[in-house]
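Dear H.,

Thanks for agreeing to be a second pair of eyes. The structure we're designing against is below in token form, covering all 285 positions.
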């Protein structure tokens, strides 16, 4: 009987030893869900690539698309012209005939957008016509704040002695130019004031105008100059007159009514106005 080689016997023993160390295969396999420690991914905005020092504009400054219409040009809008509202025209005659004459026109502008445009003059015989124009942007909403305006208009040419008729838009009055006399000397005085009405305009600061009633002693005396002084809450208005010296004049009282716009604005408070010898008080709310 032949015996097995030694190496073969050794190999068989190693196989048996390895087989004894192997773990038995389990009958069932159990799976357990393990929660993930990683949070779900959030939507990340698409990054913006900036070139140099560029900054993305805010929503209200994003440039319009190429096909968007151009914005309207505010400087070239349509303008409406209209005749101004004239409430008073004060005529001042400078010296004796042939005299130069100027007209101080006062009135009201209807809103905050209306402005003075210009004046046209026409003269025919003893009639002088002024047309004062105002302008405002068409189709524009404006604050409805009345504003007092005042314009001094020198009349064209000179005027010989006589009585003239002046028409300024819807306002009409007359004035006289005295004949030369008395060596050209003038006698100055003060107008007699019998009443003063105060008009306070709805604006801020408030604008104030006076309607002064009074008279002069004869047909040669005329209103010459109106001066104003203001100290604190007291306003003093001086209305002077002139008449040619040594001139024979009709001794008949001539009544007048003058509108005087007070200078500057008036804050809320109580005020005193003195017009020659007449005094009145008024308040601004």
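And this is the sequence the design step returned. I haven't edited it by hand at all.
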């Amino acid at each position: 009987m032949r015996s097995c080689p030694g190496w073969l016997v050794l190999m068989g023993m190693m196989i048996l030893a390895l087989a004894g160390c192997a773990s038995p295969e389990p009958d069932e396999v159990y799976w357990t869900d393990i929660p993930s420690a990683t949070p779900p991914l959030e939507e990340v905005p698409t990054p913006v690539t900036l070139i140099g020092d560029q900054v993305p504009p805010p929503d209200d400054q994003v440039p319009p698309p190429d096909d968007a219409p151009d914005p309207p040009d505010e400087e070239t809008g349509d303008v409406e012209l209209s005749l101004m509202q004239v409430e008073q025209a004060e005529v001042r005659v400078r010296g004796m005939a042939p005299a130069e004459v100027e007209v101080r026109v006062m009135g009201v502008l209807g809103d905050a957008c209306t402005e003075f445009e210009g004046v046209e003059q026409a003269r025919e015989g003893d009639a002088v016509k002024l047309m004062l124009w105002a302008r405002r942007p068409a189709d524009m909403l404006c604050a409805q704040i009345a504003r007092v305006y005042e314009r001094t208009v020198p009349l064209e040419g000179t005027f010989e002695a006589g009585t003239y008729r002046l028409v300024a838009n819807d306002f009409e009055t007359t004035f006289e130019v005295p004949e030369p006399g008395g060596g050209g000397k003038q006698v100055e005085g003060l107008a007699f004031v019998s009443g003063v009405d105060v008009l306070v305009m709805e604006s801020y600061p408030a604008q104030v105008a006076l309607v002064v009633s009074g008279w002069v002693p004869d047909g040669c005396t005329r209103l010459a100059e109106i001066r104003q002084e203001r100290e604190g809450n007291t306003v003093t208005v001086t209305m002077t007159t002139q008449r040619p010296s040594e001139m024979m004049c009709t001794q008949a009282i001539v009544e007048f009514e003058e509108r005087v716009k007070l200078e500057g604005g008036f804050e809320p408070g109580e005020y005193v106005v003195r017009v020659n010898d007449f005094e009145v008080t008024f308040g601004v709310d």
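Two observations from my side: Residues 181-285 form one domain. The longest strand covers residues 127-137.

Warmly,
E.
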